[in-house]
Amino acid sequence: MTIELPQELIEEILDHMDFESLKSGSLVCRAWVFRARSHLFHKITLLPDIVVVFRDLLSTPGCTFAEHIRSVHAVRQEWSLNNPVFDEIAAGLGGVLELNLSLDCQANAHAFYCTGFIASFPHVARLTLTFDIRPDRVPLLEIISLFPAFGHISLDPPSGVVPPRGMRRIGISTRDLVGPILAWLMKSNHLPNMDCVVLPMLRHTDIPTVRLSMQQLGPALRHLSIDLSWLLPDVDPETIFDLALHPHLETLSIYDWPSPSIDFDPNALFRLVTRLPASNLERISLEIDLDVLYYQQLDWAAFAAFFSATRFPSLRSITVKCCRHSNHGDNDHEFLRASLSLLLASGMLRTEW
Questions:
Q1: pLDDT one-digit tens code per residue, 242-297
Q2: Which CATH number does the domain housing residue 115 bear?
Q3: Is residue 19 part of a domain?
Q4: E strands present in 188-338
Q5: Which of 16, 65, 172, 308 has the lowest CB atom count within 10 Å?
Q6: CB–CB of 57/63 below 8 Å?
Q7: 3-state SS assignment for residue 98
């Protein structure tokens, strides 16, 4: 007896196959080919020593896998003899939505970084850039303007270079670039459009810029992640990050790992968080150095009571990640759970190391 499954059920099965099974499945029948290839060729890696082979495959009559490629990780080196091949294959990768580029060029930087391959992906929604040279030698703003995502920028933006209109999320991983990026977004009046902002630890020289930029973020902001590490004792995080200005936040992450060499005020974190007016808040994550010597005197009960269902009806989880002190054993976790018993009882509290 022959059983004929609906195509949608077949596709659901293919969606859950591993890579080897997909390769076999793509050879079963024509009805399986498209869905299997959409997984097999979803993400590709292009290295200088294999890009020629890829070009030859791409130019083969009847090639059909290119339409399935959505994510590309490319490593380009100016001195590689195969470097020009990247420009040759760009036209065949029009469906790419995610681009991860590792780039190294010492000379003729503008042509390498702003033309050809790198400028051929106008629909990319997620961009990761890695440079093997100093960022100030790269025309970073020009690169960013090619995509609806961004990496690094220079201090003095060239005239006419503005953020892509559709850019709604920024994630900055290098502290030296926080000031320049935010200054550029402020100058372009783009900050009110941002939906998500992720910031690393700050340089103290960038605090005025960060403070002004946080004030310009508009009601569109839904997701915020900030790092309070290594702030000097005379810097109150409330004066930089006024959470009262962001009433529509849905997720908030705070990393707070004070230096043992400075006088730390643990109440500063409590004051910062308890200014949050966001009734739409769904998740909050605190990653802290939970040393009982710092935190045992705080009013944890009041902190837990602040996150009541009345104030935050959409809140689903509060995650506290804390370091493990070898001399404390499990005392920190026991202390935390006892101190936040109200949240623990509600089922919202998550504790991690």
A1: 998 999 999 999 987 665 545 556 677 788 888 888 889 999 998 876 565 566 77
A2: 3.80.10
A3: yes
A4: 196-198, 223-227, 251-256, 283-288, 317-322
A5: 16
A6: yes
A7: strand
Q: In whole angstroms, what separates CA 232 from the centre of its chain? A: 26
The closest alpha carbon to 48, from 8, 109, 89, 3, belongs to 89
In a domain, 147, yes or no: yes
| Residues in Cβ contact with 53 at an 8 Å cutoff, skipping those fewer than 6 apart | none
Count of structural domains, the chain: 1
* Domain interval for residue 115: 15-157
pTM for this model (two decimals): 0.61
In-domain check, residue 180: no
Judge residue 47's burial from the number of C-beta atoms within 10 Å of its C-beta, 0-12 exposed, 13-18 middle, 19 or more buried.
middle
Q: Please state, in angstroms and as integers, the Cα–Cα distance from residue 320 to each residue in 256, 277, 290, following that order.
A: 11, 20, 9
Question: pLDDT tens digit string along 111-162?
Answer: 888 888 888 887 887 777 777 766 556 776 677 777 754 433 333 444 456 7
- 214-247 burial, b at 16+ Cβ within 10 Å, e below that, comes to beebeeebbbbbbbbbbbeeeeebeebbebebbe
